[in-house]
Amino acid sequence: MASRKYKQEIHEKIIRIISVGKIRKDTAKIAKAFPMTVLGMRHSGKSEEFVDEMFTKNN
């Protein structure tokens, strides 16, 4: 029952991930399962499979 409440609290929310690396890529993958909008930030700006929009520090 508690997990159902938790899912409702984060369902369709936005998560921002700074410095998308290996661990944070896994976090993005989990977030997409809820489904959440995932915004990422990376120095190179290189896109990532589970990140909806990637930013650099310049934008």
List descriptors.
three-stranded parallel β-sheet; alpha/beta; elongated; 59 residues
Explain the overall architecture.
The chain has 59 residues and is an alpha/beta fold. 34% of the residues lie in helices and 22% in strands. The chain has 2 helices and 3 strands. The chain has helices at residues 2-10, 22-32, and strands at 14-18, 37-41, 53-55. A 3-stranded parallel sheet has the order 1-2-3, covered by helices on one side. Helix 2 links the parallel strand 1 and strand 2 (37-41). It is elongated. The N and C termini lie far apart (41 Å).
What is the residue-averaged pLDDT? 85
Share of helix among residues? 25-40%
Widest sheet, order of strands: 1-2-3
Largest sheet: 3 strands, parallel
Give the tally of β-strands.
3
**Count of helical regions:** 2
Low-confidence parts: none
Globular, elongated, flat, extended or rod-shaped: what is the shape?
Answer: elongated
Topology:
Blueprint: H1 2-10, E1 14-18, H2 22-32, E2 37-41, E3 53-55
Parallel strand pairs: 1-2, 2-3
What can be said about this structure in brief?
This protein is α/β, with parallel strands linked by helices and 59 residues long. 34% of the residues lie in helices and 22% in strands.
